[in-house]
Prior knowledge:
By secondary structure, the chain is α+β, with helices and mostly antiparallel strands. The longest helix is centred in the N-terminal third of the chain and has 33 residues, at 54-86. 40% of the residues lie in helices and 19% in strands.
Amino acid sequence: MEKTSLVEPDDDSSNSVLDAMLSSEQCDELEEENLQDRVALFLTKLRSNSSQTLGAVNFVVDHTSSLISDVVGSRQRKSVSFLREIGHSESPGGQQLLEHFACAAQPFQGFESEYKQMQYFTQSGCFVQPEEVPLPGFSYTQQRDPSTGTVRQVAVRDTFQRVPLKPLLKQVLESPGMMEKIFEWQNQESTALEDFRDGTIFKTNELFSKELSIPLVLYNDDCEMVNPLGLKTSVHKLVSFYKTDDVKTYGINAVLDTVVCDIEDLELEGIQVETKHFKGTIKAGVAQVCGDNLGLNGILGYTTFLRENRVSMVSGTQRGFERTDSLGSVSNAQQEKCSLNKLQFYHVTYNVTPDVMHDILEGVGGYETKLVLSSLIEQKLLTLDQLNNRLTSFDYGFSDGHNKPSAIKPQDLKNPDGAIRQTAAQMWCLLRLLPLMIGDLIPEGEKHWELLLSLLSCMELIFSPALTAEAVIFLQHLIEEHHRLFLELYPDRHLKPKHHFMLHYPGAIRKLGPLVQFWCMRFEAKQGFFKRLSHVACNFHNIFGPGYTTFLGSIEDFEKVKCGFEGIPLFSDVYLPLWIKCKGTTYRSGMTLFVSHSADGEPQFATIQNIVVIDSKVKFIVKKWDTVGFDRHFFAFSVSPSSALDVVDIHSVDDHHPLHVVMSLKENENDHCISLRYRLF
């Protein structure tokens, strides 16, 4: 191959080359000014990535810095050689270029160690440092002398960790777009119960109803940091910000007093917020305290021995199906006065939040599913092997595949008072899809099967994100009918306390709005962060999956749906990802969506054919289904395929949860079925 030599150009051409190299000077200077911020963003993403220890982060910093230094150094040497050949090595432009190289060669300067990284995050105001707060007493621990090897007891002050609420909330409220969302939330008008602001507690609270304020939800639950079956259980048990053993020693108020001081300041003084669209003071107060029944009893000052506590927190009435035999005021059940009662706009007697996740999915649902399945097996309508075969072979689709229920063991059905062992997400999946799995084996009208369908009727309203006043009244009727049927079918069994809690759900919905806004599902999922210690859950909001860029007009069947892309040129570049994640929900081709309601109230479903991204706006090309009707025996909607295509915006669908279409198991029928997660209005 013929080699070409570098010929020295004239002055004009050499100047043009150097000008071209420095033509983006302003952009480069802007990047250099933001270089520290860019490196800090890189480090925060690295530190928040799951499975990354701090040692691994420092390892990446060291070796990435070395790699960049080598690459930039190589480019720098070639550039210096070129500048010498054109006679500009000593010119101001040449020196400036070398300075850019020197800066680019050390991007992690100032971030070399964990100490320097934390120093930068703190000084930049982007990190709120937790504070260690002492408790009244000491505990004793063993300490080994490294020089002699002897072990001695050392008194260590008991402490808990506190993250100051005011600066933390200030950062959240001043985040881009946050205040706009708050104003949008406050200005929403609704004729149904769709949010906490639609409930009576919000409307009668002097802080929330009259001022610009933020309702806070406190969460309390034990978090076991080690293997729950191991020897160290309870030793390392935490309750969000303190050790459980410390609370047993000093009482919950020793911890809550500090939290109460923070919230009192938020109630009275508020937070000074300065954003592009708002400058002023925003106050905040406690709306509700959430947690499982044991955790709530602990933080609200009730006895934590549930079997001894014969008083319901939400009503002060004796547990059981009947609700009329009052035992007196709620204070009769309190073990100690709760510090939260010092707050101006909150009292524990206003805390009516039920724990629908533990009550239903890890309580009543698992218990009754076990009883119903045992009864069906005893009647020889199916066998356990048949059930497990259908559990393992059922088509769960993308939306429920990661919550696939585990096989049911014989001992699970024999335990007289226990429930089927599944996680909450698995139990929700099992309850919703069980009629589609085995409904063809069960005669219509079978009493035990009707109990399961009755529970599902209650669940689709309890888990609904919006309810009408009429639906709440209907829910009260459904729950009472369900309990009566349970006692009729199992007269030798008693209703459990969690059955009783269900009776208060309609009243709680009227006061709070939809109960799923206060359940523990998302809070407990976040506990994985603490259980993995430094392994943090990833932040995957609005992340696009792998795909390709194409012309809008080249999409298959575009002519049938082009009306959905009006105003967009035919030859516009669009992105067709294989999947997309928006606000925590993953969408991909083949998933089915609850698109809208028809004029007569029937749900309209459609399956995603393509995902189209145009200027960060997401649209779905979907194939519609014709809704045949609701089949109560299978507790699902029957649908038939259609050739009609349509385009829907991701934000226009009635429900953001993807669904899955399965074939009906009825003989001589080709219908398809779709099971909803909850009732939509």
